[in-house]
Amino acid sequence: MATPVCTIDENGIHAPTYQACLDYFKAEYRGIYGQDVYLENDSQDGQLLALFALALHDANSMSVSVYNAFSPSSAQGVGLSRVVKINGLRRNVATSSTVDLRIVGVAGTTISNGAAADDAGNRWLLPVNVTIPPAGEITVTAIAAQPGDMKAAPDTITTIATPTRGWQSVTNPSDAVPGAPVERDAALRRRQAVSTALPSRTVLEGIVGAVASISGVNRYRVYENDTDITDVNGIPSHSIAFVVEGGDAQTIAETIARKKTPGAGTFGSTTVTVIDAYGVTHDVRFSRPVQVDISVAIVLKPLAGYTTGVEESIKQAAVDYINAVEIGGGEARVVEWGEVIEAIKSIAGKDAFRLVSLDLSSPGGPGTPDITLAFDEASHCDIADVTVSIAP
């Protein structure tokens, strides 16, 4: 009879089933005590062999888990956090909301432990020391003083909370990036896969890998216009355009400047001044995504086993998919209605309800049924934006 323990070959690891383990013990037992011995489930000897088989099956399962923990594509939890260190990565911890602020003032002014405030009175903390360059303005990334999903629409952070001589004004050209929970396994796997592009053969792949590895970066998208004319997105000829959610603006700009080829242009709504090794200043441009808030209206028919827990899982599945859609919506540039349905149908309680209808909507109107995104837009959804109704 085949071995009851795990085997490893060129195709990976293979573990026998619990029944195979039990059959092995029964066969060996009968080989010792005779073929006529009674070993069914209602016998003491049969129950003892079942315990042996279960223990062996559990050990086999543990061996499979250990084997899988050595690969980023199959490792989970702490094991995944450890294995990605070989790529110089760390799992992103829970973060506060961040926002890019445009600071205007007298050249040479140093702002120490500065803070700005939005229209709702929330404080946003600047880096410890900010020095206004000769151009008279600088873009820095501020962090919300309070943890959690702090929101701020464009041009709503306009109050200088720590008045400093020479600091004249502050504003946020783009939406704040919501604080994120601890990075999920799926997101860390995607980031690990992209990080391997750092030593790539193409320059653009190398820049993408470097930007993706920056602490705090959640989603990102890069566009390249290698033609002689401005493209449909407004990107000038022979330029690259990064759209980056999260991460420090100065670090992102310095990374792009360090990795890109000489003479290649950068395009975006955020401009950061970078000083090279020779003391020459360069304006590096990239964009922060424009947040598109998406609402989901679900109508379903509950079946046996439907609970409030199932309803919460439905909402979370929709939120997780929408918040994971890449900036610009992928090749089709949409948040796909069908993918939201697939995400909901994949939850553990999928047999406890029947989906009657699902509608997506955004500030631009209802989906048809998908939601179309511009090249620099990022979809966003909160649990509160998902409603579940019971069909009459």
UniProtKB/TrEMBL annotation:
Superkingdom of origin: Bacteria
Domain spans labelled Baseplate protein J-like barrel: 101-177
InterPro entries per record: Barrel_Baseplate_J-like (IPR006949)
Protein name, entry field: Putative phage protein gp47/JayE
Organism: Chelatococcus caeni
Phylogenetic lineage: Bacteria, Pseudomonadati, Pseudomonadota, Alphaproteobacteria, Hyphomicrobiales
